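Sample 3 of the quickstart, ligand nicotinamide-adenine-dinucleotide:
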Amino acid sequence: MSRRGRSVLHGRSPLSDAHHGKGVVVTGAGGGMGRAIALAFAHAGAHVVAGDVDEAGLADTRGLFGGAAGTLETMRVDVRDEAAMAALVDAAVARAGRLDVMVNNAAVLGAWVPIAEQERATLDLVIDVNLKGTVLGIKQALRHMIPARSGVIVNLASVQSFRVAYPGAAFYAASKAAVVSLTRSAALENGQFGIRAVAIAPGPIDTPMLRGTGGEWPPPIVAQVPLGRVGEVEEVAAAALWLASDAASYISGATLPVDGGWLAP
Ligand SMILES: NC(=O)c1ccc[n+]([C@@H]2O[C@H](COP(=O)([O-])OP(=O)(O)OC[C@H]3O[C@@H](n4cnc5c(N)ncnc54)[C@H](O)[C@@H]3O)[C@@H](O)[C@H]2O)c1
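Result:
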């Protein structure tokens, strides 16, 4: 792990005490960015409940948590299942007494083929997980956040919310554009309750999802990234910690690119 990654995961970040005692839920935390985000919050003192369909991945996430500062528990959850999502947020409230942060991170890419060759089942899967799963996460989080008159919702969008970077990922890109819109609606409707909703738009980040696209490594798209490299999961986790903290207390409805400058041109 890089120096950048270590500073986030081992609590030496300037935000290391910003989340002490908070109740935090992270979906898709059995690997990739979700795991890094869950670990970063737990190392910053939060009580984290991490959900995923991948139970082996969740076990690895638990194993990577050193136990210092906060707590980390895991739960098998499919974000398409509203009852399971309700149980996930309830677990955080049971542990911390409140739900401060909801990170809607779980997503799938779907089949990597042009629209003309896509199957209806792939459309359903991508929209059900990426869009409807995020809706369910927001809705279940609000069930606790509105009565508490506080909370932050952090959704994982993508550079593909703004710019279709690859042919073959049409449903994924459309679902991620929708996540940006959903974030704005959530901010608009819930600001009156002191609740913020924000999104992160990662560029190419070194995760199983990006590696699963196959081909060369690093991917040729890195040539379009001003910083000239793939990002690390800890760099996204650092943005999530900051956006969810009081340091970002006047930011709502916004989507922050964490993309090495890819969206700059
Ligand atoms: N990796 C990138 O380059 C990149 C770029 C832009 C945006 N993103 C977004 O960032 C987020 C994290 O991506 P990642 O690269 O870490 O992905 P990943 O595939 O490595 O991890 C996603 C996790 O979500 C879980 N998941 C999938 N379907 C689920 C479901 N129905 N219910 C619960 N969990 C489920 C998977 O098991 C996996 O652990 C996603 O929203 C993704 O769309 C990724």
